Amino acid sequence: MLRQKKAVIFDLDGTLMDSMWMWKAIDIEYLGRYGYELPPDLQKEIEGMGFTETAVYFKERFHLPMTVEEIKQEWHRMSYDKYAQEVPVKKGADRLLKLLKERGIKIGIASSNSHELINACLAANGVREYFDCIRTSCDVAKGKPSPDIYLSVAGSLGVSPEDCLVFEDVPMGILAGRNAGMTVCAVADESAADQIEKIRELADYYIRTFEDVLNHTYEVLN
Predict the structure, then answer these.
(1) What string of H, E and C letters represents the secondary structure of 8-70?
(2) What value, to the nearest 5°, has the Cα angle with vertex 24 and ends 55 and 194?
(3) What is the pTM (predicted TM-score) of this model?
(4) 20-85: CATH topology
(5) How far is the CA of 211 from the CAs of 71, 99, 136, 214, in angstroms?
(6) Is the Cβ–Cβ distance between 127 and 108 less than 8 Å?
(7) CB within 8 Å of 5: residues ≥ 6 apart
(8) Which of 118, 135, 180, 222 could, after both became Cys, cross-link 147 (CB 3.0–4.6 A)?
(9) What's the rounded Cα separation, in Å, for the pair 184 and 165?
(10) For residue 65, is the peptide bond before it cis, meaning its omega torsion is within 30 degrees of 0?
(11) Mean pLDDT for the stretch of residues 119-138
(12) Which pLDDT tens digit goes with each residue over 8-51?
């Protein structure tokens, strides 16, 4: 999988970090304040959206009285401590990052989250030093499945798209990597279990944990 690759780019939530459980809890609490239950279609509706795009979506769909910036600030308040204290890297991720660095392979992050929360959880898990570039969907014109964020990271790393390997957990993210002309490995996450057929259809590889990469036990799909 890593053969001839010059850069590896990770999505964050649900891919590099085990954090999707936290966002479901936050959505339930946040919407409950305004008399809404968590819609069953919400996760698929916001999949791939950047932090600001998601705040705009919430404001319009749920007719929230605050500004987009106020929504984002409240989400940060509700989630920062969890990212800084409770969100772990996924199994085998730290070992893979070390291996990539030893091989001289450049490493980036392309996330729909915010810079503040990304840096909080990377620092808390002791892996911030491994990353050469961090971009969020707010840094580019369009969020996933647009290729913008992946092309931005590749450009910053000075690596051609065809020389990049992407790790993603959901269809919109996988499509973003594929639309950028990159090889994509899907990472299993419980939050996306109901989309497994679509994920396997779109991705080039599939892993249950990052140990599958280290042990060469990954599945070749396409």
Answers:
(1) EEECCECCCECCHHHHHHHHHHHHHCCCCCCCCCHHHHHCCCCHHHHHHHHHHHCCCCCCHHH
(2) 110
(3) 0.91
(4) DNA polymerase; domain 1 (1.10.150)
(5) 37, 12, 26, 5
(6) no
(7) 105, 163, 164, 165, 183
(8) 180
(9) 6
(10) no
(11) 96
(12) 999 999 999 999 888 888 899 999 999 999 999 898 888 878 88
Where do the structural domains in the chain lie, given as residue ranges? 7-18+89-220, 20-85
What does the pLDDT look like over 151-184, one tens digit per residue? 999 999 999 999 999 999 999 999 999 999 999 9
Helices 68-85, 51-61: inter-axial angle, 10-degree rounding:
130
Helix (H, G, I), strand (E, B) or coil at 149: helix
CATH architecture of the domain with residue range 7-18+89-220 = 3-Layer(aba) Sandwich (3.40)
**Nearest by Cα to 113 from 162, 178, 169, 183:** 169
3 φ/ψ angles, rounded to the nearest 5 degrees: -60, 130
CB 189 within 8 A of CB 20: yes
The tokens describing 126, both together, are: 């002791």
Scan for tokens 């620092």, then name that residue: 123
Residue 89 CB neighbours (<10 A): 21
Distance CA 167, CA 184 (A): 6
181's tokens? 């002309």
